[in-house]
Amino acid sequence: MSYISYITLFKIRFINGLQYRIAAWAGIATQFAWGFMNILLFHAFYSENPANFPMQFQQFASYTWLNQALLALFGIYMWDMSIFDDIISGNIAYELVRPVDLYNMWLVKNMATRLSKVILRCLPILIVSVLLPKPFGLIPPQDIITFILFIISVICAFVLVNLYCLYYYIISFYTINGSGIRMVGMAMSDLLSGFIIPLPFFPENILKIVNLLPFASMQSMPFFIYSGYINKQEALFKIGVQIFWIIVFYITGKFFIKKALKKVIVQGG
Amino acid sequence: MIELKNICKTFKVARRNAGFKEAFKAFFKREYEYIHALKNISFTINDGEMVGYIGPNGAGKSSTIKIMSGILNPDSGECIINGRIPWKDRINHVKEIGVVFGQRSQLWWDVPVIDSFELIKDIYKTPNEIYKNNLNELTKILDLSQIVRTPARQLSLGQRMRCELAASLLHNPKILFLDEPTIGLDAVSKIAVRSFIKKINKEKNTTIILTTHDMQDIEAITERILLIGKGEILLDGSFADLKRGDKNIDETIAEMYKEYEIL
């Protein structure tokens, strides 16, 4: 099968996303503010007794800045709202009369939207955070291998986050309005993926369980690898876990959408 | 060729009366009703035919179109279109059909229409030459040369509908489903759309199935009429069969709906 149609879809979505420049500036401002606040807050905690904390402050700062810079890649809330709208309004009918696989099309759309957003936003944040004085700024990774592992892990986490979002589009075929389930999904993943508080700060017993969940493979992993919080050997293992979850999500997602489409009733007229 | 045999489809609908008390009750116990949208629908349409599919609101027209275009799974019955079962082999099936849902838009809202056309071309993997030819031809007969350079959101309904028609024909479909293509159009646009549909059918031998409430559409375009009411096919014949004396066509239809008690 040829992939021209997916590439075109990607291109168009990507170009479309680049148009929203004011939104990008607003995003950058928010992410700076959030990053600074978080770092200052934790700095106050750390100055009390750094030994109490599972990560070094420097690692925490790097974690925070990467988190903010790559928010558009990993933030669950960056849904493609147009897909929910299509399902609610019944416009999905037009997607279904196209000779493309709906699931793959959604995946491509989501990835393109996120990539276009992150490209506009990440550079200013990365540049400024590198220039910040120690220990508040982003430090370069230990070596080139760490950096390569980081990039691989970013890609895996990115794919996984997109696949996770696809579940919610499928669910909204059943729930008609997706907003309730979207809230639950977002709250759950924001907490369990370490978006709100980095995972190492969780109580040990809870962390044991959280580590078994797919959320741990989402955004935390690349940041742990980058900041040297986990060593290379462990990083390789964790990337393996990420790939495992990608396969699980993809297979189950495909299965569920097939079921959903059998039952689907295009709404209205 | 399109063949439907004993197609049935039931929808489950949650119903309740108005009011706070009823809403509260429904919160704990929903009452459902089963609506038999389609009951044993059977018909055959040959290649190159132009068929008007008519019936009152809620008769099952759109459901039938959705089944034939592979979007909806029927509960039972057979449907074979060009040798395929639409909902089982959706992707291959839809390559050969074009669909216009008059109440929806397939054009991309914020970009010029021509960009949507290009996207559709790539999605259907239409060869360049065929696409160019079709685009030129469609641009000419639908008078689109200026319109296609405008974002869809800034088009009037009539202009947009002409673009929708063009969009659904770019990949040379063998069958064209039109679900209320003239809804909300002014007289000039209606006539343009009608004559265009006729032309396409004649020149490309495209099979056309059209649903509408506008009897003049039917009179102007179709040779054959399928009348559906309460989920059943009530009449399969020509426009002449429908007409009674000198009566206005709308009156005739209204009378028929009453006669068949399908309102």
Would you spell out the secondary-structure blueprint of this structure?
The complex is a heterodimer of chains A (269) and B (263).
Chain A: H1 4-18, H2 21-48, H3 57-69, H4 71-74, H5 81-89, H6 92-96, H7 102-131, H8 144-175, H9 179-192, H10 204-212, H11 220-227, H12 232-263
Chain B: E1 2-14, H1 20-28, E2 32-45, E3 50-54, H2 61-68, E4 76-81, H3 90-94, E5 97-101, H4 113-123, H5 128-142, H6 157-169, E6 175-179, H7 187-204, E7 207-211, H8 215-221, E8 224-229, E9 232-238, H9 239-242, H10 249-259
Parallel strand pairs in B: 3-7, 3-8, 5-6, 6-7
Antiparallel strand pairs in B: 1-2, 1-4, 8-9
Helix pairs in contact in B: 5-6
Structure described in brief:
The complex is a heterodimer of chains A (269) and B (263). Chain A is mainly alpha-helical.
Would you kindly provide a written description of the structure presented here, covering whatever features stand out?
The complex is a heterodimer of chains A (269) and B (263). Chain A is mostly helical and 269 residues long. Chain A is built from 12 helices and no strands. In chain A, helix 8 runs antiparallel to helix 9. The model of chain A has no long low-confidence stretch (mean pLDDT 88). Chain B has a 6-stranded mixed β-sheet with strand order 5-6-7-3-8-9, sandwiched between helices. Chain B has a 3-stranded antiparallel β-sheet with strand order 2-1-4, with helices on one face. By secondary structure, chain B is an alpha/beta fold. In chain B, 42% of the residues are buried. Chain B is globular, with a radius of gyration of 20 Å.
